[in-house]
Fold these 3 entries.
Entry 1:
Amino acid sequence: MSNLTAKDLYGGMTALVTPMLMDGRVDYVRWQELIQWQIKAQIRAIIVAGTTGESALLSLDEFQQLLTIAVECCKTTNTRVIAQTGHINTDAVIQSNNLAGEVGADAVLIVTPYYIRTTQLGLEQHFSKIADTSPLPVILYNVPTRTQNDMLAKTTASLANHKMIIGIKEAAVDKNRILELVRLLPKEFAILSGNDDTFLLSMQQGANGVISVASNVRPYAINQIATFMALGDVISAKKLNTSLANLYKMLSYQPNPIPVKFLLHAAGLIDAGIRLPLLWLEAKLTGSKAELVKIMNEIKTK
């Protein structure tokens, strides 16, 4: 049974890519190396098989192996392991949650159902049934630009009453959503930003931290920004965050995780593997060469 609570959900967390070989097979050696780098950067948690990890393109066996390796790598560290277990149907989520519990994850992150559009009541009952049977603490995940199911703040507030639901990763584009959540949710409920480019604003509004894509390539910096914000040093946080503007821009050139995998490959950290229907990023789409060189020089050094 996991001892993770909402109080542990703060600071910088990384939605890790799933490294793949050129033929599309998962590269488990590189996976371990990426995890060790995140641990060294003192990232609070890594997310296994999230959106950035190409969750919808992984088999259940691959998910289990990725998670098993992550748990083994992190078991004597301060970095927690969170498994993304969201699926279209409720029973599949429950199955993945049970697997995550057996492997030894600290919590599960569950995206709202996608493709099948439902009501707020449907979302509430979906997550309630999942939480009723979950062996691990549940973190809700709202990303309506991908799922077309926007879980409103009032629905999240209702679900927050469940003892197994301890937080939410909020990635709605509505910049007032974090304020709504802060107003409606109990103080002990964790609110995590799911957008790199606005996470500093989200923390100013009351979010506890961020689940980041950018921290795949700049874990130290993302973690430091979150630390500055927790200490109330907004000036230092803004200065460091501004220095990442080119990175944030580059990560938006194509749908996630295409750009971040391109950057990690350019830095020699992973092979150029990705799965259809995703395609590899063309170099001509990455902006100026000077911007790319600057980002490359900063990876693994800052």
Entry 2:
Amino acid sequence: MIETKEQKNLNSDINQVLKNTSGIHIRESGGLGSEFSLSLNGLSGNQIRYFIDGIPMENFGSALTLNNYPVNLIEKVEIYKGVVPITLGADALGGAVNITTDYRKKSFLDAAYTFGSFNTHRASVNGQFANKEKGYFVRLSSFYNHSDNNYCVDSVPLFDLELGNNLGTISTRRFHSEYTSGMANVEAGIVDKKAADLWSIGITHAFNRRNYQHPDNTVDRVLGEFHSTNNTLIASTTYKKSFKKLRLKAYAAAGKIIESVVDTSTKKYNWAGEYVVRSPKDPRGELNQRRTLMRLSDQIFRSNLSADYSINKVHSLSLNFSQNYLERSGEDEVDELNQSFASPNFINKNILGIAYNYESKNEKLAFTVFGKQYWYQGKIITQDNVDQETITSPSFNNSGYGAVLSKQIFQGFLTKLSFEQTYRIPEAYEILGDGIYVLPNPDLQAEKSYNANFGLRYSNQFKKVDFGSEANLFLRSAADFIRYNPLGPFGSYENLNNVSTNGIEASVQLTYNNFINFSANVTYQNLRDQTEFDEGLPNTNYKSRVPNIPYFFGNARLGVKPFKKKKDLTIYWSTRYVHEFFLTWENLGDPSTKNIIPSQLTHNLELEYALKEGKYNVSASINNLTDEAVFDNFNIQKPGRAFYLKLRYFLTK
């Protein structure tokens, strides 16, 4: 679990906080608001589930993602490596991230504003009025983000617009990468009443606009007007009540998410910012073969009910049922021939979990055994080359199970062992497509995985030094492993028959006299294709490392309060290393000439100063201190050196 108190004065969103955690690697395709993929112990993307206050964030729309949320709205981040508690009602393959928003039983105001390089502006207001005596509260959580993302990129290809000849490479600034997003959530409720410990009703509105300089997997195609927008409206309610031996928690959320993809320009651009105008008779857009203005409308409804029953002081039972429904329809306002989603598609999944829990009276031994039942059904309509509809009705009904054991060997030394068989049902955009780059695949199957984790944790205090360390070994064997297969600027998700994953992560933390703290972690993960035969023929990639996935990376962070008596100033230095990895299968072609994503070593520097016991705060940061050319994806350069200043005001009573 990560407490965000020390991060709130810094220029951080949730992704930036997670990056410093052992076992986690985040790949980004650009600056603020760009596509990202989070990897946790060999799992990545949708194999990891994300929650906010226990509510699944999947299908919430592109404006409500981890890289949009400023850390000032968050109290803590819970990271689950291995078995995910049944109370989250998730079909994760072995990892989850749960964001807990900043809630207090008192009134407070937290306002922050950040500005910096690439015309970046980030603002947040998080406030609450609470009447403890009468037992009610009203809360506002909001943010606004904008960046031009006009950073320099090196050695991008320059093509002649008339003939298409390659004129070599140039270094230039991105000119069509602007990103804007915003969110406002209003919540009101009662607390500590006879009818409910907590009952709240909330409404969330979010939006964004993202301009695309190029597709997310290539810089060869330059875009100058192509963009997407999002508009999300969600209503939700949460209920909690504890009795003598029974605890209940329930939530429900319903909403409408509209994603628009605009490819209506007749212009053709290159990296110099030059363009030519195509003939009006030419139907092509910048990216698609026909100009398009596609609006996708998602209707979502999800609910969850969990109950914990305490048999006695050491034995308890848990029950959880979750439901997640999505209906997608669409209309192309420009291309009348495009009938994608003209007939609504839907996906519905339900998960039932039950668990038995044991915890010894001295709290040194804990054991949980659980089972899950998964139900999934859908209706997917796709078009063939002659615009004929094909209807696919996938269904799924299977069971999973697992167990977790933790034992305190002696004071400060804890061991943990977990095992599970679990399933991960495909996400809506994996199976339906996203209307931009991802093509539909109605035949995509659910992933099945056997996971085992073994962890050790040690902590102690030596006079003025607090010491902590942790190591975790993970083993996974997945069938129908889902991975993205790029086909030029587009692509689709596909199943690999069998993929094995094993790896180890380790971390260490040191604090001296509360004015020096140091942390470091390292992760090695090994993903291999274990499919010996593919459709009866020998698989040429058998036992090869799965490509385009980092396998060795690490972080280090040092914080110093230089003035022992007055601890208002803190200086932070952090560094991150990622080892190079192949773009394609390692056994195909000559390794010396294969495309690679190069190794990266980056450094960040931050200064934080607090006044009036944290009422007024200011921080300055330099990202990518040495201005390295950094790539998370092949040939997709990330921002260079960047400067930011953050102002924060915090008041509570």
Entry 3:
Amino acid sequence: TSDPDTIRRADQVVVPGQGAFGEFARGLAGRGLEAALREALASGKPFLGICLGLQVLFDDSEEQGPVTGLGLVPGHVVKFRRPAELPADAPFKIPHMGWNQVRHAGAGTEPLLSGIPDGSYVYFVHSYHVVPADPGVTVLECDYGGRFCAAIRRDNLFACQFHPEKSQRVGLRLLENFVRS
């Protein structure tokens, strides 16, 4: 929705995203959605960010920028970089697109990952990834040219870099767990 009052009345909030960070962040502010999202998060409502909806929660991004994000989760959004140790003739494509394996991170049990085995495959489409200031918020990690944060949890906020809506059974399970939260 582009209506801040609809967000305020919602029982749960989902922030999907596709596109470019700067345009997305400016669009939220320009439509008055930034304040509504902050209020929803502060109210304790279950909150799900997907892909760019994860990235915009952070302090800033290198994409189109630097560009300021919502600053709800301390940290930065950075572009994938070809690993120095990778041979020059080895492929390393950006964007990171397709199926990749995620691993549980952290010591706690994440309710939205209930019924999702460690090592499950999910679908990604992104050129940038988040680097949380507090690694303790990371609940899923993925390896693509090095380990990166694939999902975070902080209080009532869960957000993932991958697309659950494209991740078949695993993604549907995550969405089902969110709806039941």
